[in-house]
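Troubleshooting: if your tokenizer reports a length mismatch, compare your output against this known-good record of 306 residues.
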Amino acid sequence: MSKGRAGDGGGKEFQRVSDALRARLADGTYRSGARLPGQRELADEFGVSRDTVQRVLRDMADEGLIESRQGSGSRVVGGRRIPAPSAPRQPGGTGRVTLGSLVADAFAQPEVTLDVFTLTSESLDAHIRIQAENIRAGVVTAPERIAVRLLLPAHDLRLPYPRPLGDADDLRLQERLHTISRRYLVTLRDALENLQAQGFVPTVRMEVRRVQLAPTFKVYLFNGTQALQGPYEVVERPIRLDSGEQIEALDVLGVGSTLTHYVIDDDPQSGGSVFVRSTQAWFDSLWRYVSVQEDADRPPQSVQLG
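Known-good structure output:
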């Protein structure tokens, strides 16, 4: 998970490059094992210094998203995305379905409904902000309504990851995770709130609830008709704190994890139809019966717009 160094000399430029590269990992532009463009090429593309690119790549390498070796560049670490047999083929006939493409498909509808169960909202935040920019730029037609529900683990839940190896009582990495989660919730909220405030989308509703569950997988439900599910693979890797201290830890692969696509089709008994409907019912039951809003002194909690 990103620890974010937006305030680390480069600020907005660092964050802009980091967000763009993470979105490319999340939507499959840079697939597992693929080599990233060189530092000079990335610096020219984004109009930033090589130092900024180097810091972004070092940050991503620290998180286990990429591996960098001197003289051989950087390669993507992580899973591949697998469409289910019933999944619709993407333009160009590749058959590859990604989180980015499904978020874009959802935002192309008059009403957008997204239900998400995840460890943090990092991947979703990147893709929704891309759609928000497209709406403001007139690239896509703005929907009439956007409704987002996020289920995240409770702050007081002792998570099995991330944590230092051999020291389950050291909670610094979990505090770091919650800090990251809050940051992405703020930017996600701002992206949606601004669409409404600027008059692009008449109705926006975003709600966040917490559950006493440690996610072993992430789930995205799109307009009640499609779903993406992906497991969190547990790995050992070093995590660098903002203080500069490096900790050997158990963590999970989030961005870049394998995502499997399911879609409701004409056969109510097909694997895709059964999965989407049962997963939607599962999500609704968690939301209704076992999720809670955070305490008022733990912002952000439930954000309701419109």
